[in-house]
Amino acid sequence: MKAAIIPGNGAGDVFHANWYGWAYKQINKLENVTCSLENMPDPITARESIWIPFMRDKLECNEDTIIIGHSSGAEAAMRFAEQYKVKGIILVSACVTDLGDENERASGYYSRPWEWTKIKANSGFVVQFGSTDDPFIPWEEQQTVADQLGTDLRKYSDKGHFMNSTFPELINVVKEKMKQ
């Protein structure tokens, strides 16, 4: 089994940003799983037209992969699952609109309606982490993802945009889903 961590845009060196490097190390310690984490091409705008092929060809995301997407990476995970089968997706601070931000609009993720039925059909499971105190993603956006995908929602009120250096709750979900 594989896992791939897809970071948010603008993260810099992903091995030293937020919880990404920590989670990468923790997941790679687990038996029978390998985790991918790469500095993404086009890291500021995070264009769908660049990230989705990178996820498919370089990270080799496929039906044996759990895609863990944070922020822009969550939108990339959802758009990937519209087109390709995956073992599952774990969404962290996901949204559904560009929130009026020009850079987010340029990414291409929000240029058309979300194909919720395809995402559900191509994903073995969808787990979502969201926090009502996220300073970037309004709760209504996160709730829309939960409602449309019927996610296993892990709702918090004190995690902000999930930018801490560790994320043990995520590792627990990966362990849980590996057993299925």
Polypeptide structure, described:
37% of the residues lie in helices and 17% in strands. The protein is an alpha/beta fold. A six-stranded parallel sheet has the order 2-1-3-4-5-6, with helices on both faces. Strand 5, helix 6 and strand 6 (152-156) form a beta-alpha-beta unit. Helix 2 packs across helix 3 (72-83) and helix 3 packs across helix 5. The termini are close together.
With strands numbered from the N-terminus, the spatial order across the biggest sheet is 2-1-3-4-5-6
SS content category: alpha/beta
Alpha carbon gap, first and last residue: 11 Å
Task: Name the overall outline.
Answer: globular
The biggest beta sheet reads: 6 strands, parallel
Q: Please state the average pLDDT score.
A: 97
* Total number of helices: 7
Q: What is the element string, with H for helices and E for strands? A: EHEHEHEHHEHEH
Unreliable runs: none
What would you report as the Rg, rounded to the nearest angstrom? Answer: 14 Å
In percent, how much strand structure appears in the residues?
Answer: 15-25%
Total strand count, please?
A: 6
Percent helix among the residues? Answer: 25-40%
Key descriptive features of the protein:
180 residues, alpha/beta, six-stranded parallel beta sheet, 7 helices, globular
Put the structure in a nutshell.
The chain is α/β, with parallel strands linked by helices. The protein contains 7 helices and 6 strands. It starts with a strand and ends with a helix.
Q: Layout of helices and strands, plus pairs?
A:
Elements: E1 2-6, H1 20-28, E2 34-37, H2 48-57, E3 65-70, H3 72-83, E4 88-92, H4 102-107, H5 116-122, E5 126-131, H6 139-149, E6 152-156, H7 168-178
Parallel strand pairs: 1-2, 1-3, 3-4, 4-5, 5-6
Helix pairs in contact: 2-3, 3-5
